[in-house]
Amino acid sequence: xxxxxxxxxxxxxxxxxxxxxxxxxxxxxxxxxxxxxxxxxxxxxxxxxxxxxxxxxxxxxxxxxxxxxxxxxxxxxx
Length: 78
Known about the structure:
Elements lengths: L3 E5 L4 H12 L3 E6 L6 H11 L6 E5 L5 H10 L2
Parallel strand pairs: 1-2, 2-3
Helix pairs in contact: 1-2
């Protein structure tokens, strides 16, 4: 069974590098980021760099301080 990992701030510099390594390591990555200091372009680039593993990345624009957004995220992801 493939493990799914939630990465907050996954579109930022450190987060995007972490997400790439998780994908290449065989994990699924779920990213939540409010994009204040990052860009969705970083997510697209990680998917591209991950090659055949890029489909294991899902992105949700949101803030960890937003309880309804987190509840929606957890309802949509296992």
